[in-house]
């Protein structure tokens, strides 16, 4: 039995709202979802498991119809899904009352329920969110209800203290053939425990660093194989750049352009500046966001001072007194160094960044 496990698709999200690429990102989330459906058809996948947060929020009717159309194009695959904390089911909502196509089985109850597919020798268990938080460890007592009748898969969404907390070891001992999880956006596989987070299909904010996609799995005679398949059109990447006192704005901009060209102009970058700069010529960083899809620039660089020489030159004034208050200038921690450098810059009347 071949399956694809996805979660946290967040249809309707517009990542990095207000940025030039935000509108394109909203479309790409839909496009990647559509491409996964196409993979199901191409590879004759038996089950498409959706472990919550298909939608980013309460979906509009047109969004429900569009998602349902995609599912209706499946020629072989059965869909089993649950609602998560973002797209929880509100009683009487369009989402709660929507009639899905025949390919879809929506486990809508807030108590455990199951959907069995005799032709696949497989049952899927799970339950949906009907509020934004589930504080109780409802999975602690979860057990396969059809054990001995074929493969049994658990669909669940959570894993932190406010969203269905659970102990992974206890869940692994429950006896499911596979536990397909959602909520945590980073893909993680514990093959020996038969548990996995597929991660988000596309990254949805700057904290979703690295590759995103889905899990392709197969169950045969109790044997489980799992493979993470990258599918996202972009990645958020954190890049560290080290400055020296000889660094110039032109050289820094060129380095950023090289990084963007090397790792992909489509990707989204978080720049971290470290090292030291010339306090007589601090670099202006306002050009950096225009060099690519730069989500943020964090400047942890510090001015370059010869502290021993500075202490000698200012031993009779307030700067010298300030330096003396730090004691051994050679054994300062990074936090102490930063405090020291900021103070010196202020006392010397120079503009920091």
Automatic annotation (TrEMBL):
Superkingdom of source: Bacteria
Domain Calcineurin-like phosphoesterase residue range list: 1-187
Nuclease as UniProt keyword: yes
GO terms of molecular function: exonuclease activity
CDD domains membership: MPP_Mre11_N
Cross-referenced SUPFAM superfamilies: Metallo-dependent phosphatases
Keyword line: Exonuclease, Hydrolase, Nuclease
Similarity comment: family membership: Belongs to the SbcD family.
Protein name, per record: Nuclease SbcCD subunit D
Organism: Cuneatibacter caecimuris
